[in-house]
Amino acid sequence: MASTFQHYVTLDSRACHGDCALVQLNRFMLDGHSRAPGPAAGKRGSCGQAKQWGYCVLSVQNGNPGAPRDFPQAGDRIDWKRIVDNAVDRALAVGVDQLFVDGNHRTALMTMFEAISYQGLHITNDVDVFRLYVEMKSLTDDIGKFPRKNHSQVKKAMIKLMKDVVRIRPSPRVRSAAVTFEDRMLLAHAIKIDLPNQIAEVENAKRQLELQIAATHDLEARRALIRNWTHQMKRNNPKMLGRFKFVYPSYVMV
């Protein structure tokens, strides 16, 4: 994961065009298969025309500082809530604009995490990437039985999810700790590897449940089947059941 990230993400987003940084994150998510349907990266497409996705005119002008690894911890007086708000706004813009053929929402999430990490703020390991993804995707796509929401509703939900996991210090007992490259790679792994697996697991569970439901036409028998399935999942895979309930609430019976 780390070597792949370093291969594709070579620019410092503070010293390059915003869309040049986005292209690199999208290429990381898709292992180099990124393709933008619109203009090339950079101001007026100037950077993409160089046919080098690690090239950015603005980065060259700023001395090509290269992609950073670690960030010093933010100060106690930092307005971290404003930083989270701005990062969520940026993520929603990327997700809604659909700049790429594939991986828009995953790229948006990675952009949000990186924007927060760049400010020296820690994101705890219990960040709910799945729910962030579903909330954001509900703006542009139907996903399961999750209700479509407007921009204001999605932004409010995402800000709440992020404010629950963003910290100045990684834990109350640690006074000072940098946001490390390893911390960032854990978040990258959660988006690039864990999230697609979680989505596939939920969809596979739905297919299996529907096959069982289709085998009987008796309403009470179907309800009993769903109830038993729910109890079994609660025992064997409670995290998956939580994701399933979030996307398909009408299938789950207590």
* Helix-strand string: HHHHHEHHEHHH
Question: How much helix, percentage-wise, in residues?
Answer: 55-70%
Strand sequence of the main sheet, in spatial order? 1-2
Name the beta content range: under 5%
The global form is globular
Structural class: mainly alpha
Could you tell me how far the N terminus lies from the C terminus, measured between alpha carbons in angstroms?
Answer: 39 Å
Tell me how many strands there are. 2
Rg, rounded, reads 21 Å
Major sheet characteristics: 2 strands, antiparallel
Output mean pLDDT. Answer: 89
Low-confidence stretches: none
What is the overall number of helices? 10
Explained architecture:
This protein is mainly alpha-helical and 254 residues long. Helices cover 56% and strands 2% of the residues. It contains ten helices and two strands, in the order αααααβααβααα. Helix 2 (18-29) crosses helix 5, helix 4 packs across helix 7 (151-163) and helix 8 packs across helix 10. The radius of gyration is 21 Å and the shape is globular. The two termini are 39 Å apart.
